[in-house]
Amino acid sequence: MRKMEQYDDYITARRLELPVPGGSSTITLRVNEVEHQHAAPATETLAQYLRNRPGLTGLKTGCGEGECGACTVLIDDQPVNSCLVLAFQVEGRRITTIEGLESADGTLSALQQAFIDHGAVQCGYCIPGMVIASEGLLRRNPTPDDTEIRRALAGNICRCTGFLNIIKAVKSVASANARAVPE
Amino acid sequence: MTGLVQSATPGNLAEIGALVDGFSGNISYIAGGTDLVIALEQGPRPDLIIDISRMRALNFIDADVDAVHIGAATPLSILAEHRALAAKLPVLTQAAEQVGSVQIRNRATIGGNIASAVPGGDLLPVLKCLDCRIEVLRRDKTTITRAFDEVVTGSGETSLGNGDMITRITIPLRFGANRISAFGKIGRRRELAIARLNLALLADYDSTANRINDVRIVAGAIGPVPLRLRSVERQLRGRAVDQALADDFLQALTAAVDTAIPGRISQAYKRHAVMGLGLDLLQNLFAREFTPAGWSKAQA
Amino acid sequence: MNHISTSLPILDGYDKVSGRLCFTEDMKLEGLLHAKLIFSSVAHATIKHIDIEAARAVPGVIGIFHHGNTPGNTYNSTIWFEGQEAPEDETMFPGVLRHIGDRVAAVIAETQEIADKAVRLIEVEYDRLPAVFDAFAARDLCEEMASSDQKSIFEKPVNETTFDYGNTRAAFDRADLIVEDTVTTPKTHHCAMENHVCVAMPEADGRILILTPCQSIFAVQFVVARAIGVPASQLRVVKTPIGGSFGGKAEPVLDPLCAWFAKTLERPVTIAFSRAETFTATRTRCKAIGYIQTAVNRDGRILARDTDVLIDVGAYCTGGIFLPESMAQRLCRIYNIENQHYRGRSFYTNTLPSGAYRGYGSPQIHAISEINLDHVARRLGMDPVKFRLKNLISPNDVDPVTGLGLGNARIRDCVEQGSVHFDWGNRWSAGSTEGRRKRGVGMACATHINGCFPGFHEATTATLRVREDGGLDLTCALHDLGCGSNTVLAQIIAEVLDISPLSIVFSEVDTEICDYDLGTRASRMTYIAGEAVRRTAEKLKLQIFAMASLELNCAATDLFITDGRVFCGDRRDSSISLGELAAREADRDRSLSTTETYRASANPGSYAAHFAEVEVDTLTGAVQVVDYLAVHDLGRAINPQLVEGQIHGGVQMGMGFALFEDIDIDVDNGRVKGDRFSRYHLVNAPEMPLVKVLLVEKHEPTGPYGAKAVGEIATIPPAPAIVNAINHALDTNLTELPVTPERIIGALSPTG
Known about the structure:
heterotrimer; A: alpha+beta; Ubiquitin-like (UB roll); DNA polymerase, domain 1; 5-stranded mixed sheet; 14% strand; B: alpha+beta; Uridine Diphospho-n-acetylenolpyruvylglucosamine Reductase, domain 3; Enolase-like, domain 1; 3 domains; 5-stranded antiparallel sheet; 13 helices; disordered C terminus
């Protein structure tokens, strides 16, 4: 189970600047409260930009047509498929990726921890998108019910877990939220 | 192949006018991008992409006494959750909330749904059913207003010229207090599925007299463009809502599918499935149970 | 000891939920070149002409490879040990293209964008050849070819297996009832969320390093060696984290090409498939058409069965090679049937090649047999549970084909407990409801294997070393495919040595440092690798005790380990930590480590019974699975939460097999219709029913702590259980999967 750091034998430069066709303009994005400036072509998707320029490789691209949700990020707290958004479209907006959920010391958010505790994680490829889609739901609706969770995750495919433990994980956070804010 | 794609993010319509003015290349407007970005990956690329997703002037839902006006770049999630709109035109909010996934609805827009003109597009039969007017800002800065059929002309085809942009959709609020409407869809899954068949219905229904005075019904995904089912409308017009009407309605729907897609492989399925969709619509509209009587008899 | 039967969270959970885990596509490598392949757009053709000039002229294009400039070595990408014999019909870039999606050429460029652009400039002219798209046509063609002089890939079945025991014909003659069915299962795709991907690069010493999400590094090594014509020693293979496989990444599809490009260009190269490419240019589950006849007497005893399966193996005989035998094996390890005849034949077609896919033949053959058995029960007017119970095997019965014992086979417990839990009797006899939406219940039984025994190389070698900090290093080619197998293995080791499972460090899965291993396949991780690491840990424990008895001056028989320390009897003051022991050994230039090879000597069956309730809309044909119970005989659940996760995922996949998933080859031209998620629907969260899991833990004596496999079998019974429920609801006999709304309406419709 390698982490990126462990590939150092083979990796000499982790964040290579990709060659950019001449004439590309600079695209400035605010991601997880950090500003990133890179030259990129107009047709570059948000997913490509985030993965290749600042190297935020947590999000994955599983289908390129908005059907699998592995590339889900939040734009102003709303989940979107970053494979279907062009990077230049979201300049100046607040973008949140999986890397932005944990605290500065690496402590996981309650939602991330719930995914681990409820057995919601297997191969892990869909998980960043799944966590972010769930995060988007919980920001809109801190106490979703089962049906609302399922609907909110309809655009996120997992091939390992059958979704049930993922739903359970999200529900556990919803229950905690309900207890925290008694109506 | 080597052509470079330029991008622009105008703040208002005047800036768009200035951008388009004198630009000789191909122009694509991008709002949600849920169809366009896929097309960019596969097909020929435009010379200029103009982002309209953040233009306030294109993102609104307004209503006056006799019409609802919707900005072309209004996302479907906003439509789906708009309570006042749901009260006036449930057919539209119901369709919007059945498009794609949360992620798609957060980006996809009503104008984009029209411009893409995908045969299964869920808003298309609704907009045709509601007899909407589509306002287009032309490249020469003139504004024209067209009927749905004048804009959506085929599968993936519209009459929009290079540089033309849909700016708003105006939906007349017909039938006053008698107005009822509903949308139904059959996909391969309950959520996130392209429509195999969808139906939009708008009616003038006198609930006191239990009578349908007038009705418009449009089906999607049984042809390149949404199809108005006039023969089905005739079955309902002027009638009381009861089981007999339900029976005739379902039968007429089946006949309409037979007429629309004769000999197609999907005909055998859709001519039956449309009855389920029809029943769902009736139940949705009248909150009453109807039985598929004719169907049971046919089975027995 | 308390590490077994506990739900330890998956070991790499933190890296996965935080986005840190570095999958192959996440690596950033200096000077990495990107490949883009061009695929055949016709189903069967020779390449008449290929024009690469325009592509070559694109700045940033480094190389273009095709049939004319690459080794034409034939190979079979399903071998897993050196020298293994298998029909070799694959080449990196074939001169004769056998299916839409076959590899024509590749452009290697400085960036993916340049490669994508250049590949569109390549023009290919084809000379079309006649093509065959289904197994029936292939069979007919074979029969034609048998009497002609023509040579073609279609001249004979790829593989044919029969078995025959008892006297099937005589038993049929005396049967009260013979029920026959033709059951068809579709070509389906694994749909691992990570697409196929590979990286290869030259190392300083001239070898090629392959970084690949795979199921067996050694299989990759041997296949690539054959394909590119270098000794295996010139290749080093390292497994990268894998974003799901399910058999899809069992065969090195991209690795030979990637290694060849890297070797030739002397630069690192990656091939990263898109979703459409993964759908059309890798492997699928084979399509199977089973003609099955079951003979019974009036009281529900199965007298004989005759099964004839046609397998559409696709364009290449790769991972689909053993399917006829495997299906046979799965067919006779679950019911006591005294007379059986089976014939399995696989045929080439000009469609996607078949390979391994979770269950390897089991989902298909169980769909064929379990749907038929329900039909038999219906014809007998008998409760399908009671009917099955009259015929199921019992613990320690013998597999009639191999003569091997089935171990502590607890399928009867599964069925009995499951039917009580599901309230089967009442729900089944209630029958379907009236009205538009009809409900029905269905169930199905299944078995699957535990490892490859008695096949070759069913062994695992593990090395355990105590580190000076008291933790353990485990060196073993353990390919965790994301299911959490490493977590389970850590629990087993922790149980033996009573240390924290978190203190175990797993080695890289690297041909350089690991002993040979078959890799992850055939449900062998918990049962085989688990027993291997258990024995290694036990052996290490003896070594620890031998040492500690000297250090503590205590008889080895009085020693015990608690929480990483060795204690002498009840003398709490006399103890030494494992780390200290290791340090003292290091002072003596020795290491506290041991290597053990475990060779399997049994292959017990894992068993399951699944129960489903469905609601079918008789107007739209929509099916909703409204209730689900999965009962599994797995000996013992080392990690109940991971077991549950395997079962949930298995149901998701099996439900898709029953209702949605189909690669759907266009019979007119061989085009793959289901080549993306918008056209190939998977079960998503709103479709998924609640799945109750009931575990039968009756201890398998040959398994580690009594455990057997669960990963593959979980996906075997769902499809027949759901189809049987639909047939119960509608009083139909639907036998063609997936049971789509069209097929349901077709069966219900009076006019058809």
